[in-house]
Structure formats: structure tokens, C-alpha cells
Amino acid sequence: MKAFVVDRYGRKNGVRAGEMPVPEIREDDVLIEIHAASVNPLDSKIRDGEFKLILPYRLPLILGNDLAGVVARVGSRVRQFTPGDEVYARPPKDRIGAFAEFIAIKEDAVALKPKTLSMEEAASIPLVGLTAWQALIGRGQLKKGQKVLIHAGSGGVGTFAIQLAKHLVATTASAANAELMKQLGADIVIDYKKDDFSAVLKDFDVVLDTQGGNTLERSLRVLKPGGKLIGIAGPPDPDFAKQMGAPWFLKTAMRFLSYRIRKAAKRHDVSYSFLFMRADGEQLGGIAALIEAGAIRPVIDRIFPFGSTGEALAYVETGRTKGKVVIKIR
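Request: output the structure for the sequence above.
Response:
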């Protein structure tokens, strides 16, 4: 099958188009013929080797972290899906590979594709949808009437998270994207090029940070006592190290890397946690129901042909996308 592959870590090495074997399926796997995949900043970080200590992939590696397609074959113990089903998925972190014509995924990471969406639209949802769901509903335990700040509201995670929150949403974006943010449900849009959000906003229950660095630290100031700062750009914290069963030296490193932000959070009487989204077919089913009910719609910036996967990665790396970038594979 055709695929886009990383042979060696590093930005300069890029990805190459090549032939790879169609994956074999285990008894609890579904083999999916991929029709579309979406591109995420995570793909570039994996390619560059930023996660090689946390996610020790065997090279050559097929990139790609979410997809939509048709079930081609199922393992002997699979009960939820049959060949011909239209599905979408975020593969488990140790079995990525959506930039290809086929992928084998464990049944419990897969869900039926929302009927109202095209393959390209559905492929844009899994990673950002699960990230927003697990951050706001799982970790943030967002309730009706609470206030949540979502950074980079015009990005892939942001455009989904704004719609999911729906209670009272503030978001940071550029002035050029303000109208889109309001269409998606944001009540307040801060122009990050002109205004300091930490001087304008206060008494928020939850902040979802997609930026890290200085933005992460300034986010502490907008939270009320007991508020929650959830970061998906790092730094990883000791709880994350524990969840992934990291060896002692990685646990020590993560404790050190997150010490400053955890200490600052404690000083503000709030909490900080790092979220690395996990695959979950049941949650994708819940997201599909919201989409079919019209509560959430995909936001797609551009669709690239499969042969231009390298260009799609480069476009996402500019950091200027509005919503998701998708690769049409079939």
C-alpha cells in the first residue's frame, strides 16, 4: 500500500512516499480502508523526534493520527463492526499510521462515522474532538454556567472546543478570526496581537491551553481559586508520567520540567495538569451524536491530495490554519 513514512527523526529528513505492507489484523482489530486523514501539529512533533522518549516508535514509521474510512476486514473477536461500515478513529498512540491506504486499529478505538459528514469532514474530528472532550468534560468537569478560556480558538482543537463548551466561552484569536469564533459560540474574543488576555479576563473556572510557555503561565492569573489549568502543549507533569508507566528517570524529568508551573499554580490556589489525549471509540460515538444533532460542525481550512502530504504538513507548521487541514486519500 502507499504510505508516507518517517525513516529518521528530524525536520530536515521529512517524510517520504513509499510502499508499505498492508497491516495484519489481530483478533480484536478492524482493518480500515482509509479515505481521508487529517494533519495535526502532533505529526510534525513525532517526525522531529520530540516524543521519542515517551513514544518509542520503531522506524520506519507511518505518520498520521486521525482518519475516516470504510471497514475492509474484522478480527475474529470483533462484534461492533462489519465490512462496509463507514467509521472514523484516532488510532491508539502506539499504532498510529493514518497517512496510508489501510490501517489496523483495535475495535474499541473506532466509532461509526457521523452520517451527516463527508469522509474529509469526519477525518478532521477524532484527535481534536477527543482532546477537547477529555480536557473540558473529563479533566475540567465543565458544568453549565461555568466560564472557560480556550487559547488559539481558531486552531483545530480551539474550533472544536468552543463548540463543545457552549456554556460561557472566552477565546484568544486574531482580529481576523474573531467573526468565526463568534459564529462557533465564543462570547468574548481577545485579539492576542493587541490585548493581554490576563489583564482583561478574570474568575474563570477552566483554561484550556494549547500554546505552552508564557501563555501557560499568564493563564494562571485569569482563574478563580480552585480553577483548573489544563495544558496540551506541556510541560508534562508527574501524574502523566504515572499514567503512562514511565521509568524513574522520565518521572524525575517530568517532575522537574513541570515544577515551576505547578508551584505557581499552587501559589494561585489553582491546579495544573497536562493532557495527552487517548484513543476512545465510545467518546467518539458521543461526539458523533452531537454532530448529527447539529451542536458541532467541522471547520476545515484546506484539503490536500494524498500525494501532497508533505506540503500539508508544512502548511500546518505555519501555525496559521483556521480549523483543520485534511488529506484526501481515496
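The mean pLDDT is 93.
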